[in-house]
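User: Working on a comparison across species. This one is Mini-chromosome maintenance complex-binding protein from Acanthochromis polyacanthus. Can you predict its structure so I can line it up against the others?
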Amino acid sequence: MSESSCGVGSEDLCTHIHSHNPHSETFTAASQNNPNSGWEAKAVEFFQDQLKDRDTHTLVPSLNDVPLHYLKPNSLVKFRCLIQDMFDPEFYMGVYETVDPSTKTKMLRCGKYKDVTECGVDFNSRNTVTAERQTFYCVPIPGENPWVKERYAGFSQARVVPSTSYAPSRQKRSYEEDDDMDTQPQKQREPHAGPHSPSEHHGNGDCKRQETEAPSSQTASASHLDLNFPLPGEKGPSCLVKVYEDWDSFKLNDTLEVYGILSVSPALSALADEKDASSSLLDPTESMETAEEQRVHSPPASLVPRLHMLYAKPLPHNNPLLPSATLEDNSAFLSSTLSEMASVREELLSYFTHVLLGDALAAEYLILHLISNVYSRRDVLPLGKFTLNLSGCPTVASYTERFYQIIQQLVPSSHYLAMSLQNMNQMRLVPKKDYVANRLVSGALQLARNTSLFLDETQLEQGQLDTTGVRNVTALGNLISWQKVDYDFNYHQMEFPCNINVLIASEGRSLLPSDCQIHLQPQVAPSQLDESLSSIHMHLQASSQLNKFRIYLSMARLLDYSISDEVTKSVEDDFVDMRKDDPQSVSAEDLHRMLVVARLLSLSLGQTSLSRDSWLRAKHIEMLRRSRMEQHKCVNGNEP
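Assistant: Here's the predicted structure for Mini-chromosome maintenance complex-binding protein from Acanthochromis polyacanthus:
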């Protein structure tokens, strides 16, 4: 697949299938006899076959990395995203007939993969076929870290030459005056987008020019439009993804790489303004949509482009250093990585020991936490989660913030949440349904799977939690205990399962639940903290080990795991022996934690099944942790 093939547009799809399908007379005849003649399936199959090759799909420019005004309208692009909301299905003209005003010649046209029809539509034609499609509101993966974005951008931007050759000269002028244009309203900057009559978007000579014209960089001010990103400070485009088939196979919060036809017609903004103006003249009881709903569902295409899906690839991870396909399809990569995991683990353990101020045991548990993953659910119980409460964190030298910055360099997606009283009382953590705008208003807990959530409880000061604060703390507790978030639908709540790694940094024991608590025992004097942390961070930035650590942590999450019958019997016998002398010394909860630790310990060594040695080692580090917690409890009274 050459770079030029990435410019295939929606009209070219019909042409491509027609020219490569000798068994079909014409698209027109096939659609008249059977609108579902299968041409679109062949188009999708063509692109899927081409995109199976990693080298090929890196040729497709990405909305995440390439400015919108560099991309040719109606061309093939991709978008790495999370499904933030799912709108109601919409109807469109799947097949329609046009009439040439001069020759009166009729021609059947395809309405798929586009937002604006051709000129001269015959609305009375009996050949018109109405079809249905679904719209997803998609945003860039929340909390995706800068190193991930930079790596992915290297794949795409190396193949996209900054050029205004796609756009007319008028458009080129708008790029040069970009700073001035930023302050101008959208309508002033796109005067050609406003039709003078309700039917103008269907056709005269200019309508097709509007449809293929590139928008001017994202120069429209977004201040009037809430892009509904779950996390504050996020950048990148949101996108309305049009889905034509199998939309029931997608779920809210799925992470995808979507390949589709880019639609950025300025006419979309004009149509939205036209709808808004016409609805304001109607009685509110007669209008099907409120003005707020129209604003949210039909935003300017220069800010929220449309992407007509041809193919979507679920993302098991968003680490650009790993193959995008499953590990089973990359046996060479898998075997070479597994062979190095034990040695990389030792290097990472040594590094984390320095980060945790000389505490090697806490470093062991930090590795186990970072590779934990909900691999299954038994009824309501999520299996595999391992929320870690690291208590005893220093409150000097901005230790917790710098600790988070180090984790941010190692995992693909993460978010730092300072649990200050103000944040707890003011932040919206839980997504809420807005019935006026008919959309799901995002919250900070609407995150992609395997996101690392760092809760800094050292920021919590004395004071009173209000109703919002109590609700937020409850939501965090439910997230930790059940790996679910209860979205607020006003009159009821709806559970959405999640898979989020939660690390709680606190001075004493956290007010939130956790699967494991370990109290930090620093070996570095408080006066040397700042110097120690600075040297550690600089060392990591310059280290050749950095990418090894990134690959290691992501790989360990993706590995399968099993326990043989023989080892299961051995574990059961050990549990019985441990309870013989003192039945209260080891509970069923302790056994469950040891099994989780043993599983993560095995995976951290690149082992996909539990061995006797790994089980004994898991018992040993759990004994050390429990002994430390008992000693800390004795020294500090009732606090564990």
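For your comparison, note: Residues 94 and 112 are 6 Å apart (CA to CA).

User: Helpful, thanks.
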